[in-house]
Amino acid sequence: MTDKTPIVVMKGITIEFPGVKALDGVDLTLYPGEVHALMGENGAGKSTMIKALTGVYKIDAGSIVVDGKPQQFNGTLDAQNAGIATVYQEVNLCTNLSVGENVMLGHEKRGPFGIDWKKTHEAAKQYLAQMGLEHIDPHTPLSSISIAMQQLVAIARAMVINAKVLILDEPTSSLDANEVQDLFAIMRKVRDSGVAILFVSHFLDQIYEITDRLTILRNGRFIKEVMTKDTPRDELIGMMIGKSAEELSQIGAKKARREITPGEKPIVDVKGLGKKGTINPVDLDIYKGEVVGFAGLLGSGRTELGRLLYGADKPDSGTYELNGQQVSISDPYTALKHKIAYSTENRRDEGIIGDLTVRQNILIALQATRGMFKPIPKKEADEIVDKYMKEMNVRPADPDRPIKNLSGGNQQKVLIGRWLATHPELLILDEPTRGIDIGAKAEIQQVVLDLASKGMGVVFISSELEEVVRLSDDIEVLKDRHKIAEIENDDTVSQSTIVETIANTNVNN
Amino acid sequence: MADKKQEDKNNVFKKLLSSNLTVEVIALVLLILLCTLFDHAFLALSWNSNTGGLAGPLITMLQESARYLMIATGMTLVISTAGIDLSVGSVMAVAGAAAMQALNGGMNVWVAILLALVIGMVVGCVNGSLIAFLGLQPFITTLIMMLAGRGLAKVITSGENTDASAVAGSEPLRWMANGFILGIPANFVIAVIIVALVGLLCRKTAMGMFIESVGINPEASRMTGIKPKKILFLVYAISGLLAAVAGLFATASVMRVDVVKTGQDLEMYAILAVVIGGTSLLGGKFSLSGSAVGAVIIAMIRKTIITLGIDSAATPAFFAVVVIVICVMQAPKVRNLSAELKRKRALKAQAKAVAA
Amino acid sequence: MKNWKKAIALVASAAALVSVAACGSASSSSSGDSGKKVVGFVAVGPEGGFRTANEKDIQAAFKAAGFDLRYSPTQNNDQQKQIQAFNKFVNDEVDAIILSSTEDSGWDESLKKAAEAEIPVFTVDRNVDVKDADAKKAIVSHIGPSNEWAGEQAAEFINKSFPDGANGFILEGPAGLSVVKDRGTGWNNKVASNIKVLESQSANWSTDEAKTVTAGLLDNHKSENPQFVFAQNDEMGLGAAQAIDAAGLKGKVKVVTIDGTKNALQALVDGDLSFVIEYNPIFGKETAQAVKDYLDGKKVEADIQIESKTFDAASAKEALDSGSRAY
């Protein structure tokens, strides 16, 4: 394959945002007729790289050569004209038009009286047939077909504009197994016609099934380009998270495991808790003073399980026992009433209430559990705000500032303060250290250990295995929306244990 | 130390300048000055022994502002949740029609008042249920209620403009709209008291915070245990109730309901008052005092139109111009104009330094 | 349980029958099922006492004269809806159209269509302003009391009341309506030179607004000793009277209004108003007669003026006591 001429050569791509280098000298080479995956953890620079190739961002340094011609993209139109087509996670087609109109948009067949719709739809049908989609009537409104089908239509459209490169950014995240197979079938057809496909997905199994070559990024830097078939999974994960396989197995500095005394009752004991399409039924128990880590890649279901425990999503199967009592946790209010709190991974959209002050953000959950018309007395409120701002070391120490003006780390501390103010017995922390600076990260990790030592049950969800291994007593490993293992975290357990577990367990979807 | 004091002083000054309320008060004073320029007796107050209260242009203005105060207060809460209530004008007609028709039918005046309030609140609850529990869009829902409400008012009065001015025993209602308390128009006093009560309810309980929270980020609010649906239902119910009070003010003023004209277009005035008051149509933080001054400004603009003798064809245009000028005065871009210029200069200098 | 089912079936079948019947009548053209002549009435709909009385009377009179009258009211003075209703009547090929228009302009196109379809149009109450010659052909006759005449009566009453001259205000309806223009023209035609109108303001036909506006005007022009208010309709006159009362000027400022609703007459008796010019809404019989004559091939006058009365306190009491007023 290497003897072919590459269709895209990106060299030394650097993109700077105020204060951050999002990409630092990244290389990417795409050959015609291959499926190439861009790999990396969140924030590694995958989407920035795609935006550079599609002309959304202007590059600050480096070169892009498409089909032998150096390119300077000043916008998405330039990239499209150069033959680069993109199908996003959220399909960007016109749902109010027909399938045929969408496929042919801008390339409608013309007759003597303007657009000849009959011919246009016939042409659309041909394009669809080329992709094995002859069963779709081009006259059906796009809005009436499934998201998966819409993606296929979007790919057909890319063929109409004669794309040389097709970018598929997380196309499978909302598809079921059959739909994924349909998509792969079409991807293979497109690949065989000589198009280069750049593919991004968090599902490792899919990566190994469909891709030929991988480019691995970490923290905005190029790590390595490898052939998929020559790269074992644990090595790939190692490269993605920045530790070599040997290195991973050596880290293991951690505290003494909290041992469960025989006959002790767990705080939470769930059996078969699940929700269709989100997470398959899980059994789980969490004891007083225990830190339970959820490990798994993005999309493995670790967040979804946390949300089910909190009632943020309604489970559709399973039983839920709290301190031996059968309960039904159907919404966050009930969860808080039962002394369960959940700190979201999505701080901006589900966590902070941006225009409210730090003080209000700390008090709001406690207030909600007490009821709207039973205001927390001012003196008590002052004490609570003061206590948690100090305990969490929130800076600046001004409770009357809108929370949106704080840094990410301090927002996170305020939010943890909010949940602590409700005095939870079980605290679920979803990615509490993501996207915050090193100092704040260490502080939050310490808080987790302190809370557990005071008897609180803590669920610790993180994409950083190192953290999970260091802090947890038990580790629940998830993959592709299944719980695949429960690991008692003793001295024999390391990151590589988990990596191997994930890599070596196959999940039947 | 001295520096710090100076800084504090500057901050107070800056805060005052940047407050919406300040801009509003300035706008109000400017309008009053404009009127005084045209009519030198505009500020004059005299004692009217006939009504037992003060009389003068400002007093009639306050009298008219009472109804705007009511609907603007309800609208503020609704808009804070990122919603809108277009039905307040129609609810005014419905409540007024119910009261007038009930009085004509020989009902006790207090029962008639209560009936009007209950009907207003019921319409609000219907809005609230459709929006909160069925998830319909506020704009569409209340637009439909705006049309349906007018129809309902017509059904209540069989299409007539019911007149209850001759009904004996209706004095309490008449007094509500036309009477005076210590020389000040009773409806204005009642309205201010109601606004204050709503303000206390919002700020002394957690209601205000919850409403704002739902308006800022409904999903994050749900995650804190707030029930956004209940909050939505509540604000529309309150808006309906307050619109009914406004409807009583409007109809009791002449003891007559005009099924087509009562409350017509007033939803727009209420929205304008809220916007002038500094509450964003996108929801979030609200200011009841801002909306209250906004409501008085709306009444003052209408007064200015009469005082200046502006041609009736040109009144909507005049109204629009004044509101736009006030909104421009409040635009953060305008207010931060100097700060913005400074920032830009600094950026340019920095860019130069980097290039060098 | 069975009874319920039966009842539901019965209601359903009844509803089906009714809808079939409705379809039948809607699609019937020039002569209805029973051979009745079909007349379309493009109406204003509920607006106030006058309008209700007027439209009820027209409906009753046409029924009595053996016509099949199709009543189509609009809402909130929406002309667009009226035009739609008008065009539908033309498409249905009715025998004649009665038009009570909310606005005086904007009818040319629709009238042209009516002329093409040879459907005679009778304008009632409010005249329309037509530029197009073809469109004009469609209008057979205008039937209604004269707004200009009513305005003239108001001016003459003020002239007579204040031979030495006086100052006052006019409360107008919404700008742009033909009624507002005609009543204003009538006033201007007859008003004496020593009667000075300090200010004209629109109070939007509304009692409530008229009260506010009048209170403002009284405040502004206190020094000029206003002595009269000419309100272009009763509703506004009643509001003006309340403002005058509140200002302690009852009896010192004369209020003249046009329309002659019961409420206004009562206010006249009570001394709140001084003079009311009737704008007689009862001309259904005349309208039905004109339509009938035209369809029978007789000649019909182009302008049929309906006689109206004027009231002072004494004649108002008489009229109220006789109990003959329908509105």
Q: What does the main sheet of chain C amount to? A: 6 strands, parallel
Quaternary assembly: heterotrimer
Helix content of chain B: over 70%
Highest CATH level, the class of chain B: Mainly Alpha
Helix content of chain C: 40-55%
Distance between the termini of chain C: 49 Å
CATH homologous superfamily annotation of the largest domain in chain C: Response regulator
The side-by-side strand order for the widest beta sheet of chain B comes to: 1-2
CATH architecture designation of chain B? Orthogonal Bundle
Number of domains of chain B: 1
What does this structure look like?
With 509 residues, chain A is of the alpha/beta class. Chain A contains 18 helices and 22 strands. In chain A, strands 6-9-10-3-11-12 form a six-stranded mixed beta sheet, sandwiched between helices. A six-stranded mixed beta sheet of chain A has the order 18-19-20-15-21-22, with helices on both faces. A four-stranded antiparallel beta sheet of chain A has the order 2-1-4-5, covered by helices on one side. In chain A, a hairpin with a 2-residue loop joins strand 4 and strand 5. Chain B contains 16 helices and four strands. Chain B has helices spanning 2-18, 20-38, 57-80, 88-104, 109-132, 138-156, 171-178, 186-204, 207-216, 218-223, 228-254, 266-276, 288-308, 315-330, 332-335, 337-355; strands at 46-48, 53-55, 180-181, 184-185. In chain C, helix 2 (49-64) crosses helix 11 (284-295), helix 8 crosses helix 9 (234-246) and helix 10 (262-270) packs across helix 12. Chain C has helices spanning 2-27, 49-64, 79-91, 108-116, 133-138, 147-161, 178-190, 207-220, 234-246, 262-270, 284-295, 313-322; strands at 37-43, 67-73, 96-99, 121-124, 139-144, 166-172, 195-202, 226-231, 254-259, 275-278, 303-305, 310-311. In chain C, the strands form two sheets. Chain C has a six-stranded parallel beta sheet, sandwiched between helices. Chains in contact: A-B, B-C.
